[in-house]
Amino acid sequence: MSVRGGFHYRQNPKRNQPIKAWRAQCENNLSRQERSLYEFMREERVAEVHHSGSSRSVGQEGIECGIGEHRLPGGLFSVFGPPGMPPVVIPKPTYNFTIDGAERRATEVCGEYLALLRRMVAEFEAARP
């Protein structure tokens, strides 16, 4: 929201008018998919900060580790056991958003949103309204 809010100057109404016009044009030029993402993330931020939390779903996936040493985020560990032992399954949380009826990993959605905001900031700097 800090990036989006930066597209205007609160204390300078005269300077703010062309910036508001630029932002409206920029938002109108977003593709349907970009617009959906842009609005979804705005609504998610409001829900997370001001209400009961975002709509993300939390799931779980298993990481199979056979006998031997394994490095995962957070550390190195070893699995011991007899030959032929089935792999150990370590649960890993997953976070997803449902956008336009499709469930997507939160990390991918956030990456796309960040790329969109970076592009908008670059366009804003180039236009210098």
Mind sketching the topology for me?
Elements lengths: L1 H4 L7 H16 L3 H19 L6 E9 L2 E5 L2 E5 L8 E12 L2 E4 H22 L2
Antiparallel strand pairs: 1-4, 2-3, 4-5
Seen as an oligomer or otherwise, the chain set is: single chain
Instruction: Please state how the strands of the largest beta sheet are arranged side by side.
Output: 1-4-5
Portion in strands: 25-35%
How many H/I helical runs?
Answer: 4
What features would you describe in this structure?
- By secondary structure, the protein is α+β, with helices and mostly antiparallel strands.
- The chain has one domain (2-127).
- It is 47% helix and 27% strand.
- The chain has four helices and five strands, in the order αααβββββα.
- The strands form two sheets. A three-stranded antiparallel beta sheet has the order 1-4-5. Strands 2-3 form a two-stranded antiparallel sheet.
- A hairpin with a 2-residue loop joins strand 4 and strand 5 (102-105).
- The chain is elongated, with a radius of gyration of 22 Å.
- The mean pLDDT is 86.
Descriptors for this entry?
two-stranded antiparallel ribbon, 129 residues, elongated, 3-stranded antiparallel beta sheet
In short:
The protein is α+β, with helices and mostly antiparallel strands and 129 residues long. A hairpin with a 2-residue loop joins strand 2 and strand 3.
